[in-house]
Amino acid sequence: MIKDMLFWKNANKIKTIPKLVKKSHSELTIVAHRGASGYAPENTMASFEEALKLKADYLELDIQMTKDGELVVIHDQTVDRTTNGTGEVREYTYEKLMELDAGAWFHKKFIGQRIPTLEEVIETFKGKIGFLIEVKNPVIYPNLVKKMGEVLKKCKVECPQNHEVIVQSFDFEWLETFHKDLPQIPLGLLVKYRIHGVSMVQVREWSSLVQYINPNKALITKKLIKQIHSYNIKVMPYTVRDKKSIKSLIDANVDGIITDFPDYFFD
Q1: At what angle do helices 45-53 and 118-125 cross, to 10 degrees?
Q2: 25, 33, 107, 163: which is the annotated catalytic residue?
Q3: Which of 16, 27, 51, 265 is close enough to 36 for a disulfide, judged by CB 3.0 to 4.6 Å?
């Protein structure tokens, strides 16, 4: 298989997680990070299709907003790294953004992949797999909460069953604002690595709002997971790119794992 070669070349509250794909070996929830981004260009339809084939439970995807208010699926604030264009996403109209190639940077066989819209991804994969939607840079996008609401309602997922849609962000305050408008959507708080770890005071505060706390995998300890679980909150750390990390995370009793390689769990 070409996965390793390609990857290294391109270097309120029902608290359950659905098992959209049952796994005989484990109850672990497998989240495909930007799709199966170890095998296909991140946040493209090709990457999402591959994640579905590899039996992931969720697609993790990132949201930015165009100049004319379209929610599009791309990780970075700029298009430079993952397309043949340059500049900030918010400076592009949707029409101009669609002219960019989002696949060639990864491998020539993906030439022609485009930046999809959030609506396109949900409508294509709804009912087949769950969605873990990460909102990027929310403070720079006016009316983002309203736009999110419009798309989720149009796609009829504003009241998701069994957490088929989860919205996550590093920005706790933005999640609070989002929750006021769309209280039925389960929320996840992303937590960056911090040298002093995560305190019980922080977990207690976060538990008032979110159903998921998703930390950098370097923060994971059995003690932290036990503390978070004491508030009936799930934990899905990011981002696993090697098989060696899997065992220690499972031993720590995480509920899911966000990974570039969804099939690493089926060996």
Answers
A1: 30
A2: 33
A3: 51
- Report the C-alpha gap between 56 and 71 in whole angstroms: 24
Domains and CATH numbers, the chain: 3-8+23-262 (3.20.20.190)
Q: Are 113 and 101 in contact (CB under 8 A)?
A: yes
pLDDT tens digits, 84-118: 999 999 999 999 999 999 999 999 999 999 999 99
Residue 108 gets the label, from left (phi > 0), alpha (psi -120 to 50) or beta, of alpha
Assess whether 163 carries a catalytic annotation: no
Q: Omega into 82 within 30° of 0, i.e. cis? A: no
33 is catalytic: yes
38: tokens are: 């170890």
Q: How far apart are CA 243 and CA 255, in angstroms?
A: 17
Confidence of residue 26 (pLDDT cuts 50, 70, 90): low
Say if residues 257 and 60 touch (Cβ distance below 8 Å). no
